Amino acid sequence: MSSVQDAVQIWQKLESDKLHVLMHRCVRVRNRNVTCRKCVDACPVECITVEGNSLAVDPFACIGCGTCATACPVGALLPLKPADRQLEDLMVNSLDLNDGTAVIACREMADKARGRIDPGKVVRVECLSRVDESLLASLAGLDAQRVMLVCGDCDSCELSRAGQVALDVVLTMRDILTLWNSPMTVEVHQRFPSFVRFQAGYDEGRRDLMRDARDAAFDVAAATADYEIKNALQSDKEQEFSFAMLRSANGRNLPQFMPHRRERLHEALDYLGTPRDEILTSRLWGHAELDPEACDGCGMCEMFCPTGAIRLVYDDEDAEGPRTRSSRAHVQAVDVFPRQCLQCRTCEDICPRRAIRIDPQVFASDIASGVGERLLIGKAYRDAQAAQYDQDAADEGATPDAPAAPDGVGSGAPEA
Question: Could you give the CA distance from residue 189 to residue 191 in angstroms, rounded to a whole number?
Answer without folding.
Answer: 6
